[in-house]
């Protein structure tokens, strides 16, 4: 039975998430996926994926293991090239672009497995993200000319500024690998933000977190959206987090979207309940 089984019946009260329509006309699209699909060895992993992610909106992508969620993220970031369909980021077609090019276009991502530079300091990890925007000349970089050090000082100052937003400035000098798990997760998100994205993709950000850390994560995600005015799309199995922080939720089943809507709409959707919650719908005799 799915790990989602009946969790929707146990949702915590709303934590301040604004109630919006899944088709809110006031929110311009940061990302548009149009009939997106990809095949592996003749098998369709994602099929007819069509979704609009509003700028400044928090969108959840849910479904059981193997539903195609991470494959969608890999398509959005250029790890995979789509077999068919279109991806538009702020109106620009991303097809044929490399991972680095798409990152510079405005998509940043975190991963289910933390990928920090463990032996580097917290500040240096954030500066790696900031270097995405730096344009050093070969001579300046190799010879360490004054212009190089000026940019490095500016990057360090910006890194500390970003860390302070997430109450991590006192940890700037510590090595990333020495941080508690929850802070490592937070650092990975800060580093992604440092690249200056218009769309932030979070792949299971609450994985391995205890309830207290998850609550802090929810607050951080809301803070990111409000402070930076960016769109956020997340994959997550913690339904309490999804229902309380996401304004729009997209549900995948075997690589296809079966429902898109607000948390309230998703919780009452019989097809979602049948497909992901082990048959707890109103027509099911299975106890919840």
UniProtKB/TrEMBL annotation:
Any one annotated GO CC term: plasma membrane
Pfam family, one: BCA_ABC_TP_C
GO molecular function list: ATP binding; ATP hydrolysis activity; L-isoleucine transmembrane transporter activity; L-phenylalanine transmembrane transporter activity; L-valine transmembrane transporter activity
Domain ABC transporter, chain residue ranges per copy: 31-279
PROSITE patterns referenced in this protein's UniProt entry, alphabetically: ABC_TRANSPORTER_2
Domain of life: Bacteria
Keywords: ATP-binding, Nucleotide-binding, Transport
Protein name: Amino acid/amide ABC transporter ATP-binding protein 1, HAAT family
Taxonomic path: Bacteria, Bacillati, Actinomycetota, Coriobacteriia, Coriobacteriales
């Amino acid at each position: 039975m799915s790990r989602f089984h009946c969790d929707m019946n146990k949702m915590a009260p709303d934590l301040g998430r604004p109630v919006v329509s899944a088709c809110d006309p006031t929110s311009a699209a940061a990302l548009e996926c149009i009939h997106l699909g990809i095949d592996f060895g003749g098998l369709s992993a994602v099929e007819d994926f069509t979704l609009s992610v509003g700028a400044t909106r928090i969108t959840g992508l849910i479904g059981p293991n193997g539903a195609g969620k991470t494959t969608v993220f890999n398509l959005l970031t250029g790890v995979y090239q789509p077999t068919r369909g279109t991806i538009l980021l702020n109106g620009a077609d991303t097809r044929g672009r490399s991972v680095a090019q798409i990152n510079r276009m405005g998509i940043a991502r975190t991963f289910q497995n933390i990928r920090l530079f463990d032996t580097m300091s917290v500040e240096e990890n954030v500066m790696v993200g900031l270097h995405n925007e730096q344009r050093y000349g070969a001579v300046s970089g190799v010879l360490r000319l004054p212009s190089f050090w000026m940019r490095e000082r500016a990057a360090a100052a910006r890194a500390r500024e970003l860390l302070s937003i997430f109450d991590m400035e006192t940890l700037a000098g510590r090595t990333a690998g020495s941080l508690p798990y929850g802070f490592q997760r937070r650092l990975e998100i800060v580093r992604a933000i440092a690249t200056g994205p218009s769309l932030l993709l979070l792949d299971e950000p609450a994985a391995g977190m205890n309830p207290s850390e998850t609550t802090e994560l929810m607050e951080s995600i809301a803070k990111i959206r409000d402070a930076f005015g960016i769109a956020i799309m997340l994959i997550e199995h913690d339904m309490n987090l999804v229902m309380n922080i996401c304004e729009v939720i997209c549900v995948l089943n075997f690589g296809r979207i079966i429902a898109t809507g607000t948390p309230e709409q998703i919780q009452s959707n019989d097809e979602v309940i049948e497909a992901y919650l082990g048959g707890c719908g109103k027509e099911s005799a299975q106890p919840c």
